[in-house]
């Protein structure tokens, strides 16, 4: 019995340590990547998706056994702390499952544009920055495919995000350009370049976690018959699937634009 009590005590301590370690581990993996302590391949790849799930499963097993022993081995105490420890890996597991479910419902694409026939083209400045940031996603769009059946990214986007379309304005291009630039700044993006003459605004949106630098380009031009057309394109730095991030970014920008 004494051995069981000792084992119970050690399991509880292990469950507590792992419960504390999990959020700290993922925090370090994310912020370490953001601040350049290691590349995204290590922080996002190995630490988060490589070793992260193993850590969660270890914590889940330790806390689950700790809960059982708290109820079985006398004195029957420590069960509340064990349950709290169990809640941590279960929460992490739930977050991961929700992300996988969401990713499964969306096409594995990370380049979204309001104009799939003639998307805005990024400058060499952006291309150079992406090379420096070790971005794995290329800036080419036309003819880009995914999967064994070579599904067109453009076709998949239209099906998954039918509301992502060219914005039409009755106002002249200068007025729309000014509003678009103000909206881009209000999004917290780093404005890389902007030219009223060309109607082009380029920016970089940096994520809080991992510090991924996703690139955005806005193109404003005259519409036939008067008014203006605005197209926007947002592309992730890394990852085959953005899990809807780029479409959400475009929608948020659209909302900011309409609010100005």
Describe the structure.
With 260 residues, the chain is an alpha+beta fold. It has helices spanning 2-34, 40-72, 79-105, 124-132, 153-160, 173-186, 245-259, and strands at 111-113, 145-146, 151-152, 167-169, 190-195, 200-206, 213-222, 228-235. Helix 1 runs parallel beside helix 3 (79-105). 33% of the residues are buried.
Give a brief outline of the structure:
This protein has 260 residues and is an alpha+beta fold. The chain has 7 helices and 8 strands.
Helix percentage range: 40-55%
By secondary-structure content and strand pairing, the structural class works out as alpha+beta
Any idea of the CATH class of the largest domain? Answer: Alpha Beta
Q: Please tally the helical runs, counting DSSP H or I stretches of 4 or more residues.
A: 7
Shape: elongated
Kindly report the CATH topology of the largest domain: Alpha-D-Glucose-1,6-Bisphosphate, Chain A, domain 4
Instruction: Tell me how many strands there are.
Output: 8
How far the N terminus sits from the C terminus, by CA atoms, comes to: 71 Å
Poorly predicted sequence stretches spanning 5 or more consecutive residues: none
Strand count, sense and closure of the main sheet?
A: 6 strands, antiparallel
**Number of domain modules:** 2
Output mean pLDDT. 93
Q: Give the SSE string.
A: HHHEHEEHEHEEEEH
């Amino acid at each position: 019995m004494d051995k069981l009590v000792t084992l119970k005590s050690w399991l509880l301590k292990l469950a507590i340590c792992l419960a504390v370690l999990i959020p700290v581990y993922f925090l370090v993996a994310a912020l370490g990547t953001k601040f350049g302590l290691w590349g995204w391949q290590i922080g996002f790849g190995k630490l988060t998706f490589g070793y992260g799930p193993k850590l969660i499963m270890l914590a889940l097993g330790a806390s689950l056994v700790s809960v059982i022993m708290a109820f079985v081995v006398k004195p029957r105490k420590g069960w509340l702390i064990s349950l709290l420890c169990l809640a941590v890996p279960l929460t992490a597991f739930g977050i991961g499952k929700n992300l996988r479910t969401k990713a499964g419902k969306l096409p594995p694409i990370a380049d979204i544009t309001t104009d799939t026939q003639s998307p805005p083209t990024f400058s060499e400045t952006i291309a150079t920055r992406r090379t420096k940031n070790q971005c794995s996603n290329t800036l080419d769009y036309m003819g880009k495919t995914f999967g064994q059946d070579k599904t067109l990214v453009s076709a998949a986007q239209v099906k998954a995000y039918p509301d992502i379309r060219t914005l039409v304005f009755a106002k002249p291009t200068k007025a729309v350009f000014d509003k678009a630039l103000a909206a881009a700044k209000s999004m917290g993006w780093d404005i890389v370049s902007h030219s009223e003459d060309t109607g082009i605004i380029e920016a970089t949106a940096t994520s809080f976690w991992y510090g991924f630098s996703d690139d955005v380009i806005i193109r404003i031009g005259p519409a036939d018959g008067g008014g203006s057309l605005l197209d926007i394109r947002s592309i992730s730095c890394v990852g085959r699937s953005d899990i809807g991030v780029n479409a959400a970014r475009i929608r948020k920008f659209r909302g900011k634009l309409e609010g100005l």
